[in-house]
Amino acid sequence: MGVISVARPGLLTTVQDAGRKGYEHLGVMVGGWLDDWAAAWANRLVGNPLDRALLEITLLGPVLTVEEEGWAALAGADLGALVNGEEWLPGESRWLGAGDEIRFSGAKRGARAYLALAGELGADRIFGSQSTDLVAKFGGIGGRALKVGDRLTFSGGAANAAWAAPLDTLQLGPVIRVLPGVRVERFPHDALERLVSGQFRVSTHSDRVGLRLEGDAVTDAPMASASLSEGMAIGAIEVPPSGELLVLMKSRGSIGGYPTLAHVIRADWPRLAQLKPGERVQFQLVDLAEAERAMAAERSMLSLPLYPADRRPPSGSSAIPGTVWVQSPSWALAYRGTHPGDHPLVHVGDRVTEGQSLAVLEVMKTFSDLLSPGSGTVLEIRFTDGQEVQEGAALVVIALDQPGKGNKDDTEN
Amino acid sequence: MTRSPEVRFAGDAALLMEFGDMPDPKTNRAVHQTARAVTQAAIPGVWGVVPAYTTLLVEFDPGTIGAMALKERLLTLEIDDLAEKPRCFEIPTAYGGEFGLDFDEVAAKLALAPEDLIAEHVRHRYQIYCLGFSPGFPLAGLLPESLRLPRRASPRTQVPPGTVAIAGFQTGVYPSESPGGWHLIGRTPARLFYRDREPPVLYAPGDFLCFRPIDAEEYRHLAEISVQGEWVIREVTDGSY
Asked: Which residues contact B186 (CB under 8 A, 6 or more apart)?
């Protein structure tokens, strides 16, 4: 059995698992980890079943002391993790020896890191889940965030080697994809258009209940609340009378009355969880088919094989083996289709082959194709149709079938 | 069932079934019967239901089942029409003063004498339409027109546990300390929700709540009993009305 003690708690470190499912009709929120993509990688890397409870670390990480040894894995945000002063990159598992000290030097990329410990965590299980519900004050460690002096035990597990994830365990980017809201008809006809063309920033008042967004108004007059409260979906973008947008996260109250203008697609919930206060957000309208393709792609990538940790290129996030970032060769206007406004050439989740056109770039009224450097799966599209992009901007991210091929940064393998 | 519900997409991970637009018992019964049917059907991928006044939110994992397929499945579900006989639970409540911070303001706004406000609140029994906000919070109604006020302009950050409150056509009880925008008129010494009991709450949607006025002395007495882990709210028969 392993033991880790808390020397300093950090900003907000909680025990979370997949959530408390099946009790929302009693007013018990589902909660659980906000970034299920990163959490799944952390558990996989340490040899755990994917639904095991782990630590969700927010922005400013804790200082932890290893009392009894064991395997651990880190995924998601890069909060500057150090083990005895040596860098520990997200997306890697490692052995923690007795006396080791884990600290976090500060948020570099993303907002939430996930620390998985091999085996089962010793934490309160309420209604079938070890997740910490900070509102109801139960689950995890006494229903609260970690504090100084807490001792966390973990049972140890099947892990026997250090592994690295084959791609970035952090999904990052300002573009969040949305579907029209369940109450979109209650809004003025141009509200959705104003949402997708607007610029927003994450407010400091954001928490696990919801992200508050400041920025352009989506309506001229305040929106009235509905007289009848109803079930609120996770990812719903609500418009309260104040006009500030509220994007509901998993610790939301399940019943509410603000009208919902749009919904963040399921595949982008991890990205939502990684937005920091002050960060810019843009919304992109997609259809149900694209949302489902993105979800299927995300799931299929979760089963990509792991790498032995010592084979991973040292430069970290920008050179993840197995993925290639297709960049714009110059300043350009980037289009998703053959002509401005056309159907997109590729979607997230699509299979592409070497030489296939991924996008069209316009420079001084001259159009050229952005070609795929290898065959694989489209992991991410980082521009919207007609967007102005800079030289070197990563426009499309592809998970290659043959890791190592076509990635110019990947010299290690 | 009254009529087949309208099914709306609430993103790619939830569907909202709408059974009507007025909060009446018949519509609400259809909501809860369907919620039970969805749960019992154990459709792979479906992990949560949120029944409310006239709607049912069905939450699912789109990596397991698609929204279109689930919509079809929900519209062809067999609904068990058997309704359980509704029960009525009595909530002993101390009104006003330290127990209900907004009591005087509410009485003034409604132009009711304090004793008439209490009399009016305890005279009716209220159907529980759903549980929400926080674990075990019953959303009940419908309040008579004479007791209806819009929500407070600015919500309180902390409402003490056991607080009895009203807002619009609704009345309810805060089981745990939480923020809240309702008007606080009284407080019960009863504990409503136990996370380690099965069931964690005694009442269910479709049941009724009624309120019995108590004085400060009885409040303290019942609070002592409650602390020992005994249920202080009790089921009463309809004959008591």
From this structure: B93, B94, B95, B96, B99, B100, B103, B121, B163, B164, B211
